[in-house]
Amino acid sequence: MQEDRISAGVADEGQTLLALLADGMGGEADGHLAAECVTQNVEAEFFSSSHNGKLPADERLHQALLLANIALGKKKKARHIDADAGCTLIALTATQEGLCWLSVGDSLLYRQYGNSVEKLNTAHTWEWELARRVVKGTMTAEEAVASPILPHALFSAVVGENTIAEVERSALSPCRLGERYIIASDGLQPLIDNAWEALLLTPDMRDATPQQAADKLMHALKALQLRDQDNASIIVLDILPPRPAPAVETTPDSGSALTKHLIAMGILIVLCLCAWLWLMG
Predict the structure, then answer these.
(1) What are 13-47's pLDDT values in tens digits?
(2) How crowded is residue 138: how many other Cβ atoms within 10 Å of its Cβ?
(3) Beta-bridge partners for 87
C-alpha cells in the first residue's frame, strides 16, 4: 500500500509556496489516512486567513503542524483512524520572507548548491535519540548498546498525541539562485547509500529540470532491483532566475507527477512531485 502523501500549494497570487511530504506509518493500521489528514490540515492551516500574515512564515508553519497533530488526534479518538497510525512530515515553504522548513521523523531533505550536497534534517530514530542521550550523559554507551529498542524505530512522528517528541525547524533564510531542494520518503534511502552525491553531481542531473531530476532518481532507484524496496516519493524544487511565465502553471505527467512554476520574490521556483508505488513480488 502506498502510504506516502505529497502535495504542493500556492497562495497569495503566487507569492507563497508550500511543499509537503508525509510517510504514513502503520500499514494496515491506516498510515495512509494519517498522512493524508496531516498534509491536508497543515496546508489548510498554513494558508488560512486566520493565521496568514500574523506570524512569520516559520512560526506559521510550526503552528500549522501543531494544529494538524491535534486534528489527527481527534480523528483517532473518533475512531476514524486507527490508534496506531501516524506519519513523518517534511514541510518546506518559500515566501517573500524567505525559505524555511520543518521535519518530523525520518523522511529526507537535501539541498544541492553548486558542487555541494547537504543533508539538512536529522532522522528522528531511536538510534539517534540513544546517541543523543549518551552525549548528554543521561545514559552510558553500554546502556545504549544494550537497549532493547529497535534502532531504526521512530523516536518522533506525528501521531496525534499531546506533544510531538521532536520537531526540527530551520530559520527563515533568503532563497539563493541555483539551489535545488530534494524532499523524499525513506524509500529513497537505498539510492542515497549508493553513490548518491556522485549521481546528483553528474552533468546530466545538474542540467535536468525538476521533473527530469525526479524521474532520473526514480529510475536509478528501480535499477537497484532491491527485493524489499519500500515505496518512494520525491519532491524536487529548483530556485532559478525569473523568466516570462504565468504566475502558476501546472502540468500533470501520467497521473504520478506534477510540476508547478511560480514567480515570487523576483525568482522563479520550479517544483516537481513524483511518487512511485512498489508492488512487491
Answers:
(1) 777 889 999 999 876 669 999 999 999 999 999 99
(2) 9
(3) 24, 158
Q: Where are the alpha helices (DSSP H) in the chain?
A: 31-47, 57-77, 126-136, 141-146, 189-192, 196-200, 203-206, 210-223
| Cβ-contact 210, 251 below 8 angstroms | no
What does the alpha-carbon distance between residue 46 and residue 137 come to, in Å, rounded to a whole number?
38
pTM exceeds cut of 0.90: no
Separation of alpha carbons 88 and 92, rounded Å: 14
Evaluate the CA torsion angle 132, 87, 262, 14 in order and state its sign: negative
- Cβ contacts of 278 within 8 Å, gap of 6 or more: 187, 229, 230, 231, 232
Neighbours of 96 (CB within 10 A): 11
Q: Residue length, the chain?
A: 281
Could you tell me which residues are beta bridge partners of residue 268? 240, 263
Integer Cα distance of 73 and 83 in angstroms:
9
| Class of residue 72 by CB neighbours under 10 A (exposed 0-12, middle 13-18, buried 19+) | buried
Nearest Cα to 120, choosing from 48, 53, 52, 183? 183
| CA separation, residue 226 to residues 99, 144, 186, 188, 222 (Å) | 35, 31, 14, 12, 8
Cα 11 to Cα 50, 95, 131, 169, 175: the distances in Å are 14, 10, 41, 22, 18
